Amino acid sequence: MSSFFDNINSKVIDDLKVSIKDGSRLSIASACFSIYAFEELKSQLQNIDELRFIFTAPSFIHDAEAKQRREFYIPRLDRERTLYGSQFEVKLRNQLTQKAIAMECADWIRKKVRFKSNVTSANMQGFINISNEEHATYTPINGFTTTDLGCEKGNNICNFVVKVEAENSKQYLRMFNELWNDDKQFADVTEQVVDNISNIYKENSPEFIYFVALYNIFNEFLEDISEDVLPNEATGFKESQIWNKLYDFQKDASLAIINKLEKYNGCILADSVGLGKTFTALSVIKYYENRNKSVLVLCPKKLNDNWVTYRSNYINNPIAKDRLRYDILFHSDLSRNGGYSNGMDLSHVNWGNYDLVVIDESHNFRNGGKITTGDGDEYPRENRYLKLMNKVIRTGVKTKVLMLSATPVNNRFNDLKNQLELAYEGDVGQMDKLLNTSSSLDEIFRQAQKAYNTWSKLPEQQRTTDVLLGMLSFDFFEVLDSVTIARSRKHIEAYYDTNAVGKFPTRLAPISRRPPLTDLPNAINYNEIFGQLQKLNLAIYTPSAFILPSKLSKYQQDLGEGKKGNLSMEGREMGIRRLMCILMLKRLESSVNSFRLTLERVEKLIKSTIERIDNHDTEIDVTEAQEHDWDIDDMENDFIGTKKSRILLEDMDYIQWRAYLQKDYEELELTRLMLADITPEHDSKLQQLICDLRDKFANPINPGNKKVIIFTAFSDTAVYLYDNLAKPIQEKYGMDTALITGDVEAKSTLRSAGKMDFNKVLTLFSPISKEKDIIYPNIKEEIEVLIATDCISEGQNLQDCDYLINYDIHWNPVRIIQRFGRIDRIGSKNDVIQLVNYWPDMTLDEYIDLKGRVEARMKVSVMTSTGDDNLISPEEKGDLEYRKAQLKKLQEEVVDIEEMNSGVSIMDLGLNEFRLDLLEYMKTHKDIEHMPYGLHAVVGATDNAKPGVIYVLKNKDNGINIDKKNRLHPFYMVYINNEGEVMINHLAPKELLDKFRALCRGKNHPQTSLCKEFNKETRNGFKMDHYSKLLGDAINSIINVKGQSDLDSFLDGTQAELFTKEITGLEDFELIDFLVVR
Fold first, then answer.
1. Which among 133, 592, 642, 833 is least buried, having the fewest CB atoms inside 10 angstroms?
2. In terms of Cα–Cα distance, which of 873, 859, 854, 870 is closest to 536?
3. Residue 494: C-alpha distances to residues 486, 913, 994 (Å)
4. SS3 per residue for 849-911
């Protein structure tokens, strides 16, 4: 006799409740077991004699071999997780009573049940057999769940079950007994099942719940960076010297970079100043060189010595054994067609043969590609960006691009897009295929820039990072996370073992000095000198402006004809004129001596030109400033050092030109005479420096440490300081001083150490960080005072020093932070470090306004010879305010670049720190993937976290990304208080994850007293109505925000999901875990 159940009109569960009697013996073969099926039959199952359960497919067995391929492993994981409820029992799980159910179920299993698992790959049919005074078998039974028993609806078209009775049922029992007793094919897993169920009701530490959430949200990232998918891991680069010099956080970045280069062909490493981007990049270079790849390092000239050291067979190269062989060329070399650079003949360089290009200071390429042309496109000129794209990346072999920059974004997201384009050869389709985004890259950045423009116009109090983040799309963050790595010092301190990594020193509040120009009575001051500079025309730099109209055609190739007179030669001249005016102000800020030297050089130039005009010379050279006038950043400008042009004197209105030159000569001479009496003895700024050094030597801020770095933008100032300080310091204090600039040979008063060079000076100045004992074991002396230009403001680890003086304030505030980054580094032996800034003797508002007026006066409506636009744009005017805000901040405290919140930091935008947090945790906690959903922990409320619950949810329909702005899709997080009011909604996942981590970090044991209170309130999980209601409120908040977002989009004319896919509530979301804040 047999019966039939369709699980709609007649259900298996109803018949089981009748058939299972006290004293029954049950035998079940099924793919999975759910505690909710136990709950449905609890009354009947409590009084049976025994239950034998066979898992029909391998479950809860230990892998003897390496983990099976993911497509086989994941279904098994899902089968095992069904213990805590299947995918169709979400509604039951979301009632939050699983803790109480699990406790009862585990107690029942210990008394009544044994589990075995099929350990083979052979298939087996599922059924339920009941033996008492009658025999009955129900088949087929795929799983012992409420869905298979007919309580809940599943996704099967039909769920038919047949009940077989009498002798036919006994046949099933005989077969079951044979299998049960076969120890080769079936293994006992009762203990494992009980252990897994006990995970549901045991108390959890807050930290564990935090990592369960992270694991579920970011486990795809773990697969991405796992060493299984890193190609050619056996190349041995982990045995290299460079790898073994890296901190753990640098090793993590190195592996992630290689993965991103392999997957996306490009990566931007945007770690903050002081985190050792150079060493991280060197480990990546070593990896590719071990694979016999050709590598080019493209850097600014000022960083040349740094990169040269690490590839050279020098005794002061700490990684000489790695025998790195990369080529080094400069950003400016891209604009050159011939000549030599770093010993390489540029006319013969095979630019297209590099497998990897490492671009140091990649932000220099953030403005993208531009072409200027002559009349009729006859003389096209590409800027450096296009030359890099066309010469190196698009030509020849497939080139991977690693970009290094602490500031990849200034005030435009297009900065980032332009750099990323280098990775995909400007062909956006290449990257679109690789990214998991719904929109194209061009559209993603267009929308991001649109959002930023809207944000930037908001009132200042509303213009916060959080508001900006809420305006950006899910796709934008997906791009960011795919191709960038950005960590700050705070991240490293928070997420890595600082005992292993070392600590950052404590920053003392900056000291600001504002010495006057001189102590002489009635002497000229800054503002008066600026008044003199305002009178200058600097026509010496713009001879083409005086070419007679009738003669212009002779200079057609050089001049070209643009709508606005966009002349190649004239553009170069006007650019130099503008820079020279700004330069004079910069050099005045730096030192009276540097300013005086520049006046003398320009005077001399004008005088010799006037003499040539008076002598009726036939030709005039188009003049350029001497290279030693510029600071290091100016030297990177394309129109510095380019080919000179010549103009016939007879083709010029030289009478008018001479009149302009004569006027400038007289103004310059007058200004120079006003400064003549300011000797070093009356140079107030120099005398202030002497006082500061005297105080530092007498009162070290760290015991015994007298080291000082003095930074200046100009070589002339550095030489002036060395000439006036080095000998007195040696004679009075017995300490040695050294000088390093970009264009003067290294000097030192330390004669016993032999001839000095760039790297030797740095090693003797910072002996611990530069491993002096290994490199120069026989030199016992050290250098205590280092005077340097910005040639060492990046890429150098000088953390033995604890005191840094900016003798002049760089116009770019980022440079101040980069300078300080030489001593503000992880692993420092100093407890505290000090920054001293020398400001001009005026208020900051006057200072910024003065700079703005200089730039505005020198505004040019021309394109430079390379195609770079040097207009003073509205963005640049805004940038003056940006600089002003930054500099104000730097007067009060030393901040990280990413904390200058007027700009855009990608550290605000990415979720890397949480991924890396998880990566570290997973090294010692592999079993987290087996944890059930719905776990919770209890933690105490704080001033920043009020009582309530943080819910971590998963949307069951991956196709619905609510409002297209959820970066965690398909995961959602909501922080709700006990009254049902949402405190942080799902659109702020970074804020929520920060809050989650702050509440949980370091709490690696259950909070016992809080757990007791919670269990008392909920009667050990039986009475969870309050928390189940809050969960419903949290889900409703997501739906409500979505509805409002869709409506806004609809009313704005934006295509949205209004009236399409519906999310109805509780059953659409899976609860991953939750944190109760009490």
1. 133
2. 854
3. 14, 9, 11
4. HHHHHHHHHCCCCCECCCCCECCCCHHHHHHHHHHHHHHHHHHHCCCCHHHCCCCCCCCCCCC
The vertex-867 CA angle with 866 and 873, nearest 5°, equals 130
Q: Which two tokens stand for residue 797?
A: 């680890």
Q: What is the pLDDT of residues 85-134, one digit of tens each?
A: 776 667 777 788 889 999 999 999 999 999 999 999 888 999 999 999 88
**Model pTM?**
0.70
C-alpha 106/C-alpha 654 separation (Å) is: 102
SS3 for 793-853, per residue? Answer: CCCCCCCCCCEEEECCCCCCHHHHHHHHCCCCCCCCCCCEEEEEEECCCCCHHHHHHHHHH
Contact between 127 and 140 under an 8 Å Cβ cutoff? The reply is yes
Q: Which residues pair with 648 in a beta bridge?
A: 619
Residue appearing with tokens 């900016």? 806
φ and ψ of 320, to 5 deg: -60, -35
Q: How many Cα atoms are found within 13 Å in the side-chain-facing hemisphere of 980?
A: 11
pLDDT digits (tens, 9 = 90+) for 510-569: 999 989 889 998 888 877 887 787 788 888 888 888 888 888 877 755 544 433 333 456
Cα 635 from chain centroid (whole Å): 29
Tokens of 487: 């960590």
Q: How far apart are CA 827 and CA 813, in angstroms?
A: 25
Collect all residues with Cβ–Cβ distance below 8 Å to 337 and sequence separation of at least 6.
346, 347
Low-confidence ranges of the chain (pLDDT < 50): 64-74, 226, 228-229, 231, 373-379, 559-567, 625, 627-628, 632, 634-643, 857-879, 901-903, 1043-1063
d(CA 571, CA 754): 48
Q: Rg (Cα) of the chain, in Å, rounded?
A: 36
Residue indicated by tokens 């230009």: 789
DSSP state of 547: B
Residue 142's identity, in one-letter code, is: N
Residue 649 to residues 155, 610, 615, 646, 873, Cα–Cα distance (Å)? 90, 12, 11, 9, 35
Sign of torsion, CA 436 441 444 445? Answer: positive
Which H or E element spans position 404?
strand 400-404
Helices (H), 784-838: 813-820
Residue for token pair 């101040």: 816
Q: How far is the C-alpha of 554 from the C-alpha of 27, rounded, in Å?
A: 103
Residues 6+ apart with CB under 8 A from 772: 763, 764, 779, 782
Residues whose CB falls within 8 Å of the CB of residue 940, separated by 6 or more in sequence, listed in order: 1007, 1010, 1077, 1078
Peptide linkage before 970 cis (omega within 30 of 0): yes
- Residue 21 tokens, joined: 């009697």
Q: Which positions ≥6 away from 1008 have C-beta within 8 Å?
A: 203
* 426, amino acid identity: G
At residue 1075, the 3 state secondary structure works out as: strand
From 197, 200, 175, 196, select the one nearest 186 (Cα to Cα): 175
Q: Strand, helix or coil at 622? A: coil
Query: CB under 8 Å to 464, separation ≥6 — which residues?
Result: 901
Q: Are 947 and 1077 in contact (CB under 8 A)?
A: yes
Those residues whose C-beta lies under 8 Å from the C-beta of residue 1064, and which sit 6 or more positions away, are none
Length of the chain: 1078
User: Which two three-digit tokens encode residue 266?
Assistant: 């490009």
- Starting at the edge strand found earlier in the chain, the sheet holding 113-118 runs 2-5, 161-165, 135-139, 127-131, 25-30, 50-55, 113-118, 186-188
Question: What token pair was written down for 980?
Answer: 């049902």
Around 389, how many Cα atoms within 13 Å sit in the side-chain half-sphere?
21
Six token digits for residue 685: 């700024």
> Distance between CA atoms of 174 and 179, rounded to whole angstroms?
9
Return the closest-CA partner of residue 469 out of 909, 899, 901, 902. Answer: 909
Bridge partner list, 1077? 939, 948
- Residue in the structure block whose two tokens are 């699983």: 98
| Gap between the Cα atoms of 468 and 904, Å rounded | 10
